[in-house]
């Protein structure tokens, strides 16, 4: 049962990451202008390499490891890793991109890693400081929704009370029957 709950939690976290990070990378959409339009402003929808990130493009990648499934999400020099535990941090590096993450539950095996990009950036091989090596595959653009609902309403109700009533008894009465009496047959 715990495995199902953990899997459901991982799937929910993956959905949240994909929705919040824009559902994928734009790959090679940068073009000759480096993803910048007139005046040096970023072109909407163009993948941006994070500053100081060694050329690691924004996007989402997934790896199936012995420790479970992990999702790596990169957006504008920030990185998050979600799996059996979560990590967040930044992408650094002058040459090969490096991940500098802080992880929950005191985990350190995936806190610092060096990224090698393969297959035109569609595959990331991360060698972690803890000795692990994970191979992440990019989540294809358009497939990121993975059956998640779309077209969610944006006009949700508001004005709910912000304070809940207080003064309820904190101790339940004793001597209460443990079962309701049987109902007579009709």
Helix content: 10-25%
Task: Assign the CATH architecture of the domain at 2-24 and 48-138.
Answer: Beta Barrel
CATH class of the domain at 2-24 and 48-138 reads: Mainly Beta
| CATH fold name of the domain at 2-24 and 48-138 | Lipocalin
- Main sheet? 8 strands, antiparallel, barrel
Give me the side-by-side strand order of the main sheet: 1-2-3-4-5-6-7-8
Q: What does the overall shape look like?
A: elongated
Q: Ends: how far apart?
A: 41 Å
Poorly predicted segments = 1-52
Brief characterization of the structure:
This protein is mainly beta and 186 residues long.
Q: Any chance you could write out the topology, listing elements then pairs?
A:
Layout: H1 2-20, E1 59-65, E2 68-75, E3 78-82, E4 86-92, E5 98-103, E6 112-118, E7 123-128, E8 133-138
Antiparallel strand pairs: 1-2, 1-8, 2-3, 3-4, 4-5, 5-6, 6-7, 7-8
Features:
186 residues; mainly beta; Lipocalin; 8-stranded antiparallel barrel; 10% helix; elongated; disordered N terminus
């Amino acid at each position: 049962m715990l495995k199902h709950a953990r899997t459901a939690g991982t799937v929910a976290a993956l959905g949240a990451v994909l929705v919040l990070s824009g559902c994928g990378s734009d790959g090679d959409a940068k073009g000759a202008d480096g993803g910048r339009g007139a005046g040096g402003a970023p072109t909407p929808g163009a993948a941006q390499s994070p500053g100081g990130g060694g050329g690691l493009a924004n996007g989402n990648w997934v790896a199936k490891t012995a420790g479970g499934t992990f999702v790596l999400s990169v957006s504008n020099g920030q990185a998050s890793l979600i799996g059996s535990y979560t990590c967040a941090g930044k992408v650094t590096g002058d040459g090969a991109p490096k991940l500098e993450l802080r992880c929950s539950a005191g985990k350190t095996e995936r806190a610092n890693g060096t990224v090698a990009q393969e297959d035109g950036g569609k595959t990331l091989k991360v060698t972690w400081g803890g000795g692990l090596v994970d191979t992440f595959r990019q989540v294809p653009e358009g497939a990121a929704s993975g059956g998640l609902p779309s077209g969610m309403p944006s006009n949700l109700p508001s004005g709910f009370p912000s304070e809940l009533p207080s003064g309820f008894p904190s101790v339940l009465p004793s001597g209460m029957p443990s079962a309701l009496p049987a109902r007579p047959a009709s």
